[in-house]
Amino acid sequence: MKKLIIPALLVSLSFGSVVEQYLTNLKTEVLKNEQNFKGFDVKRGEEIFTSTHMGKKGKEISCSSCHGIDLTKSHENFFTAKTIEPLSPKANPKRLTDVKKIEKWLKRNFNDVYNREGTPKEKGDVITYIMSK
Ligand code: HEC
Predict the structure, then answer these.
(1) In the CATH hierarchy, which top-level class contains the domain 2-132?
(2) Entry pTM
(3) DSSP 8-state class, residue 84
(4) Is the distance from CB of 87 to CB of 101 less than 8 angstroms?
(5) What are the structural domain ranges in the chain?
(6) How far is the CA of 37 from the centre of ligand 1 (A)?
(7) 126: Cβ below 6 Å to ligand 1?
(8) How many CB atoms lie within 10 A of CB 58?
């Protein structure tokens, strides 16, 4: 029994720490410019995720255009129609477990929607929103 319990425990611990460490680092970045910053905010994250903008390819899109509104469900890529697995870590335990992957896709996806990279505050807010789903 013990053998089964310990790996499960390690998986859950490492999940928490990867994304939490990432958020802590982003918060340190935000505090450099905004001394009275209180913390990341689900509502601001929701606005970032669901609002529509003239994206990189000259089409009105939002993060939801590819990831959907219900983050526990898979959704079709707006451009390629390929299936994207759910973004919610509750529905898809592989999500938000690898900082390199998170950074790579946030950079690319912010560019798709906002034509620029996300700021540390925007990235923290949107990750906090995704985690709440
Ligand atoms: C044009 C389609 C598209 C748009 C728009 C888009 N994404 Fe993505 N996103 C993807 C694809 C494709 C992947 C990588 C494939 C995968 O992991 O399923 C991905 C992966 C991610 C990941 C990686 C999660 C992980 O740990 O596996 C995050 C976080 C993410 N997107 C957030 C966002 C946010 C925030 C926005 C809006 C700023 C956004 N996406 C807009 C297509 C999109």
Answers:
(1) mainly alpha
(2) 0.90
(3) E
(4) no
(5) 2-132
(6) 26
(7) yes
(8) 8
